[in-house]
């Protein structure tokens, strides 16, 4: 066991590990700290190739103490695809797509839930609850079913039907509401004590981000321990961005990589771009978005509890934040699919028009190594393409 303690991402207060906890007493997200010197004794770069091809290959830097509590459906080790045809269209020779659609339940959310629900099992949770715009709900339902723990899911009633059906068919208790994911979160906050739910909302417990950080480990491993120049990442709640940055720091501490970091780019939809607006304004917390709207449901997060962490990462990495229109991101689904055969989720596809903006402004050069993250499968969003098939 290499976990040493939990710590607050804002005030720094430390907490004992292996306890059931949500936020710091200051109301901010908690993170997991490891004895990385000890982890590096058994987890070595050169030995990873002989390990299982899923995220649990990084076992020493994941928080589950007992092997019998690990829940897996084969999550992680998704392909890093060189986008040669798409790159040629943009005049780029080193464009890559990390395709998270190949995870169980069809999105990167499987990573976070695999670790969080494994920890919930280890810590004796009896009921789980989550607010979700879609893919997190599907992942929670699947891993909760695997664990035998009842799941209570609250989603906006305009959530893609595939996500709703997925949750119902994997045994979750699903409630649809009029409103946004933030409204769903309020319901859980109001009822969790009386209902006995443990809240696994984004960054409101310490372990989902630990699963998401494995994207950073994988990316380094797949690129032969030379991180890319630029990462474009579609950002709603932000655990993927935050997790990868944590992974880079951990790998440097273990001597796996140097101090260089990719420029991190947050991509959001124009109808819900709190991080983009805050970054442009020089603010340290996300902007208020009173009427959040976008067809990319995973980006429809008007207030992220980890907004201050994301903004700090963007600035530390000399990165930026870009918003795109719904028309642009939907057109990009077809553009990526036609060039590379990847049916991207609208959120992931949003990275392409964002990249075009950065190229046009010379904030990214055509010879740099650039990775776009496709966070999910377009199959989950068929209603978004309804007009195109009628």
Describe the structure.
The termini are far apart. The protein has a domain at 80-105 and 208-389: Rossmann fold (3-Layer(aba) Sandwich). 37% of the residues lie in helices and 15% in strands. The chain has helices at residues 36-42, 84-90, 109-122, 135-147, 161-169, 181-195, 208-212, 214-222, 239-253, 274-281, 307-316, 326-340, 346-349, 351-360, 386-389, and strands at 3-8, 14-15, 30-34, 80-82, 95-99, 128-131, 151-156, 173-177, 198-199, 230-234, 263-269, 320-324, 370-374. The chain is α/β, with parallel strands linked by helices.
Q: How many alpha or pi helices?
A: 15
The level of helicity is: 25-40%
Taken from the alpha-carbon principal axes, the silhouette is globular
Strand order of the largest sheet: 4-5-13-10-11-12
Main β-sheet, in a few words? 6 strands, mixed
Distance linking N and C termini:
55 Å
Short overview:
This protein has 390 residues and is an alpha/beta fold.
Fill in the keyword field for this structure.
alpha/beta, 4-stranded parallel sheet, Rossmann fold, 390 residues
Topology:
Blueprint: E1 3-8, E2 14-15, E3 30-34, H1 36-42, E4 80-82, H2 84-90, E5 95-99, H3 109-122, E6 128-131, H4 135-147, E7 151-156, H5 161-169, E8 173-177, H6 181-195, E9 198-199, H7 208-212, H8 214-222, E10 230-234, H9 239-253, E11 263-269, H10 274-281, H11 307-316, E12 320-324, H12 326-340, H13 346-349, H14 351-360, E13 370-374, H15 386-389
Parallel strand pairs: 5-13, 6-7, 6-9, 7-8, 10-11, 10-13, 11-12
Antiparallel strand pairs: 1-2, 1-3, 4-5
Helix pairs in contact: 3-4, 4-5, 8-9
């Amino acid at each position: 066991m290499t976990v040493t303690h939990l710590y607050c991402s804002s005030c720094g207060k430390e907490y004992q590990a292996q306890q059931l906890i949500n936020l710091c007493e200051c109301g901010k997200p908690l993170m997991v700290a490891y004895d990385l010197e000890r982890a590096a004794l058994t987890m070595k770069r050169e030995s990873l190739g002989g390990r299982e091809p899923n995220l649990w290959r990084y076992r020493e830097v994941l928080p589950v103490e007992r092997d019998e509590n690990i829940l897996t459906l084969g999550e992680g080790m998704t392909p890093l695809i060189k986008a040669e045809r798409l790159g040629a269209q943009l005049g780029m020779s080193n464009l890559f797509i990390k395709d998270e659609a190949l995870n169980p339940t069809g999105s990167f959310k499987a990573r976070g839930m695999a670790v969080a629900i494994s920890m919930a099992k280890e810590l004796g949770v009896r009921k789980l609850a989550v607010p979700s715009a879609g893919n997190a709900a599907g992942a929670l339902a699947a891993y909760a079913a695997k664990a035998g723990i009842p799941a209570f899911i609250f989603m906006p009633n305009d959530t893609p039907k595939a996500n709703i059906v997925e949750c119902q068919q994997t045994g979750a208790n699903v409630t649809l509401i009029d409103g946004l994911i933030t409204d769903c979160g309020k319901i859980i906050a109001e009822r969790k004590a009386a209902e006995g739910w443990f809240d696994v909302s984004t960054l409101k417990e310490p372990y989902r981000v630990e699963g998401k950080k494995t994207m950073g480990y994988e990316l380094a491993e797949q690129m032969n321990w030379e991180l890319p120049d630029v990462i474009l990442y579609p950002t709603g709640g932000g655990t993927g961005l935050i997790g990868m940055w944590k992974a880079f720091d951990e790998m440097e501490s273990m001597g796996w990589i140097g101090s260089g970091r990719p420029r991190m780019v947050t991509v959001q939809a124009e109808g819900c771009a709190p991080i983009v607006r805050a970054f442009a304004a020089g603010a340290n917390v996300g902007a208020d978005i009173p009427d959040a709207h976008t067809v990319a449901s995973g980006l429809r997060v008007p207030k992220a509890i980890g907004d201050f962490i994301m903004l700090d990462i963007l600035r530390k990495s000399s990165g930026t934040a870009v918003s795109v229109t719904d028309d642009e991101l939907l057109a990009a689904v077809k553009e990526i699919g036609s060039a590379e055969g990847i049916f991207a989720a609208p959120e992931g596809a949003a990275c392409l028009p964002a990249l075009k903006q950065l190229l046009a402004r010379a904030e990214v050069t055509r010879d740099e190594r650039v990775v776009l993250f496709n966070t999910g499968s377009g199959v989950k969003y068929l209603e978004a393409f309804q007009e195109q098939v009628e």
